[in-house]
Each structure stands twice: as structure tokens, then as C-alpha cells.
Amino acid sequence: MSRVTLLKMHQGVAVSPGVAVGLAYRVDSVLAHDAPEFLSGPEQVESELARFDQAVSKAIEEIAQLVEKVAEQVGRNEADIFGSHLTLARDPSLLSSVRHKIRQESRTAPSALTEVVKEFAAVFARLEQEHFRERLADLRDVVARILIHLSDDGEIGGLKGLAANLSGVKEPVILVAHELLPSQAMSLDGLKIAAIVTEIGGTTSHAAILSRSRGIPAVSGCSEIMAEVQSGDLVIVDGREGVVLVRPDAETTSAYRKVQREFFQLKDRLVLNRDEPAMSRDGIQVELLANINNVADATAADVVGANGIGLFRTEYLFITHPNVPDEEEQYQYYRRTIEAAPNKTVTIRTLDLGGDKTVPYLGNRYEPNPFMGWRSIRMTKDHPKIFLNQIKAILRAGLHGKVSMLFPMITNYDELRQINRLVDDAKKELSDAGVSFSRDVKKGVMIEVPAAAVCIDAMLREIDFVSIGSNDLIQYLVAADRDNPKVAHLCDPLSPAVLRVLQMVFEACRRTGTPVTLCGEMAGQPRAVLVLFGMGLRRFSMSPAFLPTIKSLLSSVTSAQAERFAHHVLQLKTSDEIRKYISARLSEVSKDLGMFDFN
How far is C-alpha 236 from the chain's CA centre? Predict the structure, then answer.
């Protein structure tokens, strides 16, 4: 058999640039566990039954507490969602089936529970009614809670086991998974990970956001990779081209290891520009800001020399919280983040839940098209209290730094007026309660719905600043799901349509003197930044790991050069023409920085 046929190559979506060569570590489903499947002897049956009953009791107690807190913080109707969870946790059929497998098959409790869930899932899969699909989602949630209490380390999905297993490993591993849930993604800080590969997801999946924030290569949408890879296999990940090679030969491995060394050597050199000003070669000042999810990210942004935080995604606090964070918990969390941020300057985005970021207490139910459905600001009418609590927490945290408040997914002027009324209500409640808060918190909107971009003039009279969320703006503009590998190629930031819409927004903001920032993935892509800078953009917000690269790029180009590039690009008719032209210009400006581009 030839060398070529032995090489397993998978094409996915490039979501974080760079190259990594290393050993694979599989993370199986959220219900995976590291415990043995069977008991070592019949004498263990009774103690295992008692362990299972104890775990169920703890889960029931936890769910009951959750019901009360959700009722208090969100509403009684939303709390009723967990009534079905309590029913499932007490379901005699479920519990007796698990006990039967422990007693009759000598299975461990986690193994028995997982097998029973598979049997339930097989039954539900044959039933087409939406009710049963939702019922299965509830069952998985309950089972996950029980498994947490059955595990020795309080985690599921093998993540804590991964940390323990990696303690003696000299080189980082390549994480391979079907998908990474938000709670899993946020648990990976500090682990020895060289790259991430997932079967599903795209440029804005949780795995992608985590990878970019840590500056590690990643490929998503790599279908059937789990069927090919076992833990310990040698794997190459090319996050620039979206390619994953499984069990490569020595010649291919050697070539990619060379590229990997060059990539990290260049990264190390670029970090040295931390204290240099962000400006073009001819002295035009630029603000380079960071996108963050938590306090650790804020610290990382300070390390690389960001001017501030341009986007603080608050939904990750809610997603990883065991129930619903109240106003005080949010205030303390925002305060810690502000204090860790560069120059204590933070733009806090209000909840942007929906799509693939859901929490059950806000109505975590199936939608045929969730990214264009009930999400983000659109939830405000149904859950005014939870948004009111968040706004109050942000206003209070504003006393500890230079804080702005950003509202996502605004579609029209009426929504903006509704939000402004909510902010006024929050201020009144704080004043009436005698609670101190900042009256200097500025308000802005994210332009990510094309309708808002078209009608931006009306909104500019009501706000202090604009942030462009290019990720959503692009997918809505071209009517293509950016996380679907079959149509992801249409979500091209360098398409003529995208650039013309951005030009329209920039010009509207220039006419009114409104500060505008771009905080989507375009802000960290060298080719796109060359064009955006030439179009007049002076505020970029990106994953902290990209900031040294973009600072180096801008220091290599004059504003006149960039303007000339942009003017030419805006005359071109296709994405391919634009990409070819601007890639050549990037090579002229800085031949090395193309290594950090992707998509």
C-alpha cells in the first residue's frame, strides 16, 4: 500500500490559526465517565446501590434549590421547567432500571445509568413528536447531574481526568471531541492543550472561541474524526487551512513540525511589542482592544498590552453557573473583571443567549432555526427581570472603572427605545434603594442584524457608540449558517457585500462623530484589518492572542497605503479577487504575518 493511501486527511473549518503536531486525547460525550463499567465482585453491589441512591438524593436536592432560585430571580413559569426535572429524577422506572443493572449485571452506577439513558434515547428516537425530543433533553440534564455526584472529582466528560492524566505529560495534547459544551470549554484553562479538533461547530463555536482566546490552533466541522482517532494517535492540526492529518508518515510530520516551530518563534517575537504604542507606520493612533469571557481573559489582555476590553461576553457567566446568578453575584464578577482589565476599561455586553448558547431557566427548548429565532435582546420582553438585574449589576460595577454597556442583536429603533426604558427603570430602582451606581456608563448597540445597519442613522441619535459584530452580520447578510461546513464558505468577511455594508456603517458613524469598533473575528485577521484600516476604522477588538500580530501589522503599513488598498478592493466584484489582491499586499507589507490568518 502506498504512503499516500495510509495518510488520513480530514477537511474541516479553520477557526484558529497555527499548526500543531501531537498526540490525540479523545473527549467523549458529556455522559462519558472514567469509572470501570463493572464491579469487581458481588460484595460491592449493596454499597454501589447506596452510592447511587445518595447521588440521586443530592441531585434532587440541587434541582429543588434551583427551582426556588429561578422562581425568585426569573419567574415562576420558568421555574416550572425544572418541575419535570424533579419528576424525572424521582421516576420509578428510571431508578429501578438502573438498580436492576447494578444488581443483576454487576455494573457500576455510572455505567448502569449511562446504559439506561441509551435505552430511553432509542425509544424516544422512534417518536417524532417534539414533546419527546424535549423530554430526552431534560433526561440528559438530570442524568448529567447525577453523574456529577457519582464522580470522584465532581466533573463529567473526562475533563478533570484529563488534567490528572496530563500532569506527567511533557508535551501538550490535541483535544479531539464531537463537540465541546460551554461548561467543558470553560473548564479547560490551564490544561496542556496544543490544539482542538471537533466534529461539529464553526468559527464561533465554544471550542473556536476558547482556542482563539488562548492562541492555539483549532479546526471545527471535521466530520467523523472521532471514528478515525484514538487517544495516543499522532495528529497534525493546521488551523490555517482547516486540515487535520491522522497518523501521518515521518516525512509529513517533519515538515509540519518545522512550520510549528516557525509559528511559535514568530509568536514569541511578536509578544515583545507589548509596551509599544498601537499605531501605523506614519503615526496614526489605533485602539486595540480585547474580546473576553472571564477574569482570566482580562488578565491575558493586559499581558499582551490591550488598550482595554472591547467586548466582555457575559453569557458565559450564566452558562457555567449552576443556576442563575443574581444581581450581587453579577456585580462582584463584573467588578473583578474590570479591576483585572487593561486601564480598567471594559465594554460589557448584555446577555446574548440563544442559538447554541442556552440555559434551561430562560426556556431552553427546540427551535427549528435558533440563530434567527428567540435570542438575545428578543428575550427581554419575556424576561425583563433577569435583564433588569444584569443592567443594575453593570451600573454598580461602573463605579470601579471606565465601563460601557453594549446591547446585542438590536434589529430596529423600537427595540432600542425599549432597552433605554429598561435602563431608566434600573437606575430608578437603584436610586430608590439607595444603592450607589455610576451615571457615566455609556450605552451602545451591536450592529449585527442587516436591518440595523441599513437604518443606523435613526439609532445613532440614541446611543453613545457602535460595535459591529461581524460574525453574525456576515451570516445574516449572506443567509448562511456560519457553523454549517456545507455553506460556511459563503460567510466570507472579504466579500464585496460585507465590505460595502461595513463602509455604510463607518460613514454613518463618521457623519455623527460616533465611535465605532469592530469586535468580530475580522478584527483579528491580518488581511481584513488591512482593508478595514484603509476604510477608516480605528478601533479593533479581538481575542487577546491576536493582538500582538495586529499591532505588528499596523506598524508596518502607512494610512495612505491602506487607503489605496481599500479603494482598490471596493472596486472588485468577487471574494476571490479581493482575497488574491489583499493577500499579495499583505506579503508586501509583512511576509510573515500571513501565517496568522485563516478563513
Answer: 23
In CATH, which of 3.40.50.1000, 3.40.109.40, 3.50.30.10, 2.60.20.10 is domain 3-28+158-266? 3.50.30.10
Beta-bridge mates of residue 219: 14, 197
pLDDT tens digits, one per residue of 561-580: 999 999 999 999 999 999 99
Choose among 409, 379, 408: nearest CA to 75.
379
Cβ neighbours around 439 below 10 Å, total: 9
The pLDDT tens digits of the residues spanning 69-91 come to: 777 766 666 666 677 788 888 88
From 222, 491, 509, 519, the catalytic residue? 519
Question: pLDDT tens digits, residue range 391-402?
Answer: 999 999 999 999
CB 385 within 8 A of CB 362: no
100 annotated active-site: no
Confidence at residue 359, expressed as pLDDT on a 0 to 100 scale: 60
Q: Strand 218-220's sheet: what is its strand order?
A: 8-11, 243-246, 234-238, 19-27, 173-177, 193-198, 218-220, 13-16
| Domain ranges across the chain | 3-28+158-266, 42-150, 272-593
The one-character DSSP state at 350 is P
Q: What is the 3-state secondary structure (H, E, C) of 481-505?
A: CCCCCCCHHHCCCCCHHHHHHHHHH
Task: Please determine whether the domains at 42-150 and 272-593 fall in the same fold group of CATH.
Answer: no
Q: Find residue 20's DSSP bridge partners.
A: 237
CATH superfamily of 42-150: PtsI, HPr-binding domain (1.10.274.10)
Residue 154 CB-density burial (10 A; 0-12 exposed, 13-18 middle, 19+ buried): exposed
Which ranges constitute the DSSP H helices of 106-228?
109-125, 130-150, 159-165, 182-185, 206-214, 225-228
pLDDT band at 118 (very low <50, low <70, confident <90, very high): confident
The residue among 454, 343, 433, 453 whose CA lies nearest residue 388 is: 433
Catalytic status, residue 178:
no
pLDDT digits (tens, 9 = 90+) for 137-150: 678 778 878 887 88
CB 35 within 8 A of CB 149: no
pTM of the model: 0.74
Residue 312 has pLDDT above 80, yes or no: yes
C-alpha span between 398 and 200 (Å, rounded) = 38
In the three-class reduction of DSSP (H, G, I as helix; E, B as strand; rest coil), residue 281 is classed as coil
CATH architecture group of domain 272-593: Alpha-Beta Barrel (3.20)
- 247-296 pLDDT per residue, tens: 998 888 988 898 888 888 777 777 788 889 999 999 999 999 999 988 98
The catalytic position among 10, 33, 149, 206 is 206
**198: nearest Cα among 173, 224, 168:** 224
* Cα 272 to Cα 257: distance, rounded to the nearest angstrom: 24
For residue 570, give the nearest of 500, 474, 477 by alpha carbon. 500
At 69, give phi and psi (nearest 5°).
-70, -40
**246, 235 contact by CB (below 8 A):** yes
Longest distance between any two alpha carbons in the chain, whole Å: 80
Beta bridge partners of 173: 193
- Amino acid symbol at 368: P
CA distances from 176 to 23, 36, 224, 265 (A): 10, 22, 11, 25
Q: How high is the pLDDT of residue 367?
A: 59
Cell digits of residue 288: 486595540
Mean pLDDT of 353-367: 59
